[in-house]
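Exercise: predict the fold of this chain.
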Amino acid sequence: LPYVLERIGEELIIFASDYPHGGSAFTGDLLGRSDLSERAKTKILRDNGIRLLGEEIDAVEYQNDLQSAS
Protein backbone atom coordinates (compact mmCIF):
# COMPACT_ATOMS: atom_id res chain seq x y z
CA LEU A 1 0.00 0.00 0.00
CA PRO A 2 2.77 2.54 0.72
CA TYR A 3 4.14 1.84 -2.78
CA VAL A 4 0.74 2.54 -4.37
CA LEU A 5 0.24 5.70 -2.31
CA GLU A 6 3.68 6.92 -3.32
CA ARG A 7 2.96 6.31 -7.01
CA ILE A 8 -0.62 7.58 -7.41
CA GLY A 9 -1.21 9.59 -4.25
CA GLU A 10 -3.44 9.16 -1.24
CA GLU A 11 -6.35 11.04 -2.84
CA LEU A 12 -7.25 8.17 -5.21
CA ILE A 13 -7.60 5.26 -2.76
CA ILE A 14 -10.85 4.59 -0.91
CA PHE A 15 -11.90 1.91 1.54
CA ALA A 16 -15.19 1.11 -0.17
CA SER A 17 -17.14 2.41 -3.12
CA ASP A 18 -20.48 2.67 -1.32
CA TYR A 19 -19.71 4.16 2.12
CA PRO A 20 -16.44 4.68 3.99
CA HIS A 21 -17.17 2.99 7.31
CA GLY A 22 -15.57 0.72 9.88
CA GLY A 23 -16.55 -2.71 11.01
CA SER A 24 -14.28 -4.97 9.01
CA ALA A 25 -10.91 -6.58 9.63
CA PHE A 26 -9.35 -4.41 6.93
CA THR A 27 -10.25 -1.23 8.81
CA GLY A 28 -8.53 -2.40 11.99
CA ASP A 29 -5.52 -3.59 10.00
CA LEU A 30 -5.26 -0.28 8.19
CA LEU A 31 -5.53 1.75 11.40
CA GLY A 32 -2.78 -0.33 13.02
CA ARG A 33 -0.26 0.16 10.24
CA SER A 34 2.80 2.18 11.19
CA ASP A 35 3.95 2.62 7.58
CA LEU A 36 1.03 4.93 6.72
CA SER A 37 0.47 8.45 7.97
CA GLU A 38 -2.64 9.29 9.97
CA ARG A 39 -3.57 11.67 7.15
CA ALA A 40 -3.41 8.84 4.58
CA LYS A 41 -5.52 6.57 6.81
CA THR A 42 -8.17 9.26 7.24
CA LYS A 43 -8.26 9.93 3.51
CA ILE A 44 -8.57 6.23 2.64
CA LEU A 45 -11.19 5.47 5.28
CA ARG A 46 -13.24 8.67 5.10
CA ASP A 47 -12.27 11.79 3.19
CA ASN A 48 -11.82 10.29 -0.29
CA GLY A 49 -15.18 8.51 -0.09
CA ILE A 50 -16.91 11.71 0.99
CA ARG A 51 -15.31 13.57 -1.89
CA LEU A 52 -16.36 10.84 -4.33
CA LEU A 53 -19.93 10.59 -3.08
CA GLY A 54 -20.39 14.23 -2.23
CA GLU A 55 -21.78 13.40 1.20
CA GLU A 56 -21.01 14.47 4.75
CA ILE A 57 -20.60 11.95 7.53
CA ASP A 58 -21.44 12.87 11.09
CA ALA A 59 -18.17 13.22 13.02
CA VAL A 60 -19.50 11.24 15.99
CA GLU A 61 -20.56 8.37 13.73
CA TYR A 62 -17.11 8.35 12.14
CA GLN A 63 -15.37 8.23 15.52
CA ASN A 64 -17.65 5.37 16.62
CA ASP A 65 -16.74 3.46 13.45
CA LEU A 66 -13.04 3.95 14.12
CA GLN A 67 -13.41 2.76 17.72
CA SER A 68 -15.37 -0.34 16.72
CA ALA A 69 -12.71 -1.23 14.15
CA SER A 70 -9.80 -1.19 16.58
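Check your answer against the key: Helices lie at 2-8, 25-32, 38-53, 59-69.
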